Amino acid sequence: MMVRTFTRSLSRCLAAPAVVVLLCGTGVAAGAQRTAGLPVGARVRVHRPQAPTLLDGTLLRQDSAGLVLAVPGRAPGVASAVRVPRVDVRRVERYRGTLPEAEAFRRGARRGALAGAVVGGAVTYVAMLVERGRTCRDCLGRVPVVPAVTGLLLTGVSTLVGGEMGRARREQWQPVPWP
Question: What's the pTM?
Answer without folding.
Answer: 0.54
